Amino acid sequence: MYELLKLSSKQLPKLRKWIARKERVLERKLAADTRYDQEIEYINARIESLVNQKKRGRPRVMQPPGRIARNPRNGLKEGILAALKGADVKGMTVKELASSLNTNPNNLYTWFHTTGKKVSGLNKSEDGRYRYEEK
Predict the structure, then answer these.
(1) What is the pLDDT of residues 44-81, one digit of tens each?
(2) What digits encode the pLDDT tens for the residues 111-125?
(3) Structural domain that includes position 15
(4) Is residue 64 in some structural domain?
(5) 65 located within any domain
(6) pTM for the full model?
(7) For residue 15, is it within any domain?
């Protein structure tokens, strides 16, 4: 009778409401005479219009599964190493680096903890300053 698979999730509660109303009218009709025929025709028309209603908006285009493209880090490694090369013999703290590179200090702490370990010539002093000595 109705193609339920074509309905959207927004239309289902409305359809349920109209079908429940139709059932109530049919129960009253069985108890009484034929005076409820017009109301049943009206409800059937509403249900038909709801089922045949076109969906609004553009159809959603699904992204194919795969790797999500991410923004590059704007050369964080090159920026850090260039700033440390230009620093004095003492080196620079993470806060000083963050202000010169205009980035979040937490990103730099993470970078030093992960990628910074792999860079030869990058040293951390006891007072928390980083130095870069090119080899």
Answers:
(1) 888 787 777 766 666 666 666 665 545 455 578 888 88
(2) 999 888 888 888 888
(3) 8-51
(4) no
(5) no
(6) 0.45
(7) yes
